[in-house]
Design a protein that fits this description.
α16 runs parallel beside α19 and α17 packs antiparallel against α19. This protein is α/β, with parallel strands linked by helices. Strands 5-6-7-3-8-9 form a six-stranded mixed sheet, with helices on both faces. It has a six-stranded mixed sheet with strand order 14-17-18-12-19-20, sandwiched between helices. Strands 2-1-4 form a three-stranded antiparallel sheet, covered by helices on one side. The longest helix is centred in the C-terminal third of the chain and has 36 residues. It has 19 helices and 20 strands. 43% of the residues lie in helices and 19% in strands. Among the domains are: 42 residues, no CATH class; 208 residues, P-loop containing nucleotide triphosphate hydrolases (Rossmann fold); 113 residues, no CATH class.
Length: 606
């Protein structure tokens, strides 16, 4: 085992009351790619700032190897004193670092370097900060929510860069798929303590559940042991009770341990408030278009949204996802075409910019709209503090200004508000930003169990795969031209369908190339031999095998064309998609083999 290059040992920090960190540890060795996980408010960002030297514990030890370089991704980067993004990024380089790496990173992060830092959007500021910390290729890279505000192509590029990087990595993120790709170890912060799993995030949740189950069993055993001791005290011999004070003291210790046990932080318990059922047809868009100047955002696009559908919109930043969403929901008018909204629609919206948050409002005032201490949820009067507890807010936070909340807490508060309103059409624009993994699980359950209709914009691939019934994406994500395509299923299903279409196009191009092989300019060649028996057999039988496979492909495509299949039987849909991919691959291989044999036969026969 290599010696650690960074070590945090027995870290303690408290702001009064229950300690935030109570003996937390983290050790980073060369080659480590650690994901730091835990609930919002568990101390992840605080521990990472301590690792970076930006905060100090009240007790504990922190060791940083004197020869290593370390870079920390700030959530709110400071651009003061920098006239351009390039100047800001280059300021992170050391004397021996390669300045060309800044240009490489800025290009792949979608920045020119000439941007004015004062005019950057939240996503652009995050990209500039990533370029600055990654450019030196430090020995240790500390990334706090690096994927927030990034689009899918950039997230996938970032995954590749981190996987091939030589830097040891500690990352905090809510993006499951991202964590699975980049991590080889997991540190779990829970109730002030840390536990380490020497495996990536893909194994974390099963491991965590085993620990919590064992803990619950241990508490159950402790309770039974207390019951036995109390029974002995009540019914044992009086003289024995008087002289066995040691046993009485042990019972008091057991009671103290049992009462002092702090279980895992509660999970959010909520569901969307149902409104009157909408009409069967929720949205009908017919050949809608939108352009701003010379730029086409949506070229003629048509679709129907039915009650119970869950539609996901994906694509790079700037492709027009939010514009398309607003046209579909009637918030902006298309340049041409029509949008018809169904009957009895009650729309609730979670906006990615959190624009309707008044930071001076208190939590209680925001949830009740200033109408006293109660709010109506699913037709039932609820006291605001009781409702807040379902979203992991403490009663004493009712009078806390929203400006004092973390990003994750603000997202959770907005979620609590929209779920208290009667709705049959949920519009979720980047709902996963700043949410911890457990709250994401809750949101997933809410969306999956919602009886109404959901339209969401997200870059979270795992969340899309778990929730949506169809996915709308740009036809050309690398250079969006206004064309949008609807695919059945989630993100992974969309990628499988795209791959199938690309493979089919590739096969057609190869066949065309083979047919157009020079047959007129070359003189016939004299025979040089003949095909082997095995080659002749393959040449005669491959067309039959290809025909059989094409028939199987057509049969599966017909079954998958049923728009209700994914909703009714997602397992069958996934099985068909997997079989379809294998069949298309086999047809491609057979076509290539047949073309090679046919060309060989022509050459041999002159």
């Amino acid at each position: 085992m290599a010696p650690p290059i960074l070590k945090l040992d027995d870290i303690f920090l408290s702001f009064g009351g229950t300690p935030l960190l109570a003996g937390a540890n983290m050790q980073v060795e060369p080659g480590d790619r650690i994901c730091l996980v835990g609930r919002n408010g568990s101390g992840k960002s605080t521990l990472m700032k301590m690792a970076a030297g930006l905060a100090e514990p009240q007790s504990g030890e922190i060791f940083r190897h004197p020869s290593v370089t370390l870079r920390y991704l700030h959530q709110a980067p400071d651009f003061d004193g920098f006239s351009t993004v390039r100047a800001y990024a280059e300021a992170g380089l050391g004397p021996s670092d390669d300045p060309y790496r800044v240009a490489y990173l800025l290009e792949h992060l979608g920045l020119t370097g000439d941007e004015d830092p004062a005019q950057l959007s939240g996503g652009e500021a995050r990209r500039a900060a990533l370029a600055r910390v990654m450019a030196p290729e430090p020995d240790i890279l500390l990334l706090d929510e690096p994927t927030n505000h990034l689009d899918l192509p950039t997230i996938e590029w970032l995954e590749g860069e981190l996987v091939k990087s030589r830097s040891a990595l500690v990352v905090i993120s809510h993006d499951r798929r991202f964590l699975e790709k980049v991590s080889n170890a997991t540190v779990w912060l829970d109730r002030g303590l840390s536990r380490r799993l020497n495996q990536g995030f893909g194994q974390f949740e099963a491991w965590r559940d085993q620990i919590l189950e064992a803990e619950e069993l241990e508490q159950h055993k402790l309770g039974k042991e207390i019951e036995r001791e109390e029974h002995w005290l009540r019914y044992g011999v009086t003289a024995r009770r008087k002289r066995n004070m040691r046993r009485l003291g042990a019972l008091q210790d057991l009671r103290s341990k049992y009462r002092g046990h702090k279980g895992p932080q509660g999970s959010v318990q909520a569901s969307a408030s149902d409104a009157q059922e909408s009409g069967k047809l929720v949205i009908e868009a017919e050949k809608i278009t939108k352009a701003y100047g010379e730029r086409t955002i949506v070229s003629p696009f048509s679709m129907r949204v039915h009650r119970g559908d869950c539609i996901g919109l994906v694509g790079p930043n700037g492709a027009g996802k939010t514009t398309l969403l607003k046209m579909l929901t009637g918030q902006i008018e298309p340049d041409s075409g029509t949008v018809k909204l169904g009957t009895n629609l009650e729309i609730a919206t979670l906006d990615q910019r959190r624009e309707d948050l008044n930071l001076e409002d208190t939590l209680a005032h925001y949830l009740t709209d200033g109408r006293g201490e109660n709010l109506l949820v699913n037709g039932e009067q609820r006291h605001v503090t009781g409702y807040m507890k379902e979203f992991l807010f403490q009663p004493e936070q009712a009078r806390t200004p929203i400006k004092n909340l973390s990003g994750g807490e603000r997202a959770r508060l907005m979620l609590a508000r929209i779920l208290s309103r009667p709705t049959n059409l949920l519009i979720l624009d980047e709902p996963t930003n700043d949410l911890d993994i457990e709250t994401l699980d809750l949101l997933q359950e809410i969306v999956a169990g919602f009886s109404g209709t959901v339209i969401l914009v997200s870059h979270d691939r795992d969340f899309l795969d778990r929730t949506v019934t169809s996915t709308i994406a740009p036809a050309n994500p690398d250079a969006p031209d206004g064309r949008w395509i609807e695919y059945a299923g989630g993100y992974s299903d969309m990628m499988a369908q795209k791959k199938g279409a690309a493979d089919e196009k590739k096969r057609a191009e190869k066949a065309e190339k083979a047919r157009s092989t020079d047959t007129t300019t070359q003189a016939p060649k004299a025979a040089k031999g003949k095909l082997s028996f095995k080659q002749k057999f393959a040449l005669e039988n491959l067309p039959k095998e290809m025909e059989k496979a094409e028939s199987e492909i057509a049969r599966r495509e017909k079954e998958m064309a049923d728009p209700n299949l994914f909703t009714k039987n997602p397992t069958r849909f996934s099985t068909l998609a997997s079989e379809l991919e294998k069949l298309r691959d086999s047809v491609t291989k057979m076509e290539e083999e047949w073309l090679e044999l046919e060309m060989l036969r022509e050459e041999l026969e002159g």
